[in-house]
Amino acid sequence: MKVYVFKSLPPFLWGYTRDIRAMWALEECGIAYETVGLDCGPNGLQDETWFESFSPFKQIPAIDDDGYILTESGAILLYIAEKSGKLIPLDLQGRAQVYRWLITSLNNIEPFALPILFADLQGDSNPHMQALRPWHVEILGRFFPTIDKMLKTQSFVTGADFTVADIALTCVLRELRKAKLLPQYPNIENYRRRCEERPAFVKVLNAYEDRLGIARGSAR
Asked: Does residue 129 share a domain with residue 80?
């Protein structure tokens, strides 16, 4: 399988890009893959015109599984899990819980986590984003207490087993790792750190830093 990833990024994007999600799932599932590195354009998209035939919005990641092309990180995570039979339960109701929590991460958490990240990255240069930051923190406050309470009694978001839903949520939580928000929710923060200690994640992030040519730990 080929996975299209970044080979260059501006420093403010190190460790936040969604190609990490796809490679993490591939490593966890034991699927052999090769990376195809692309440069990040000025708007965070890829300038190579040929890539539009793979990804209509010219976004990374994309995968090519023997000619079958798929984009969007959430869809890729589910495809990898279903293809391998790993990181997802066999029964319908168990799989539905994985779908539920993956969608929750991408629909309920990330739309508010990303603006906080951008507000912190842009600082005073974007007063509009800064003004909205407290509102986004408030919205996350509707979700995080429930998740924090849940993770007090179970290891992962769907129960005892690590799934692709945990990859999605952990990578979304990484967008807030420098925002001084997660320490308010100790079970969520411990969960994030525990997931990031998994050997597959460590391997992927090391390779990610090597591919970008940046110092070890720069994307942590």
From this structure: no
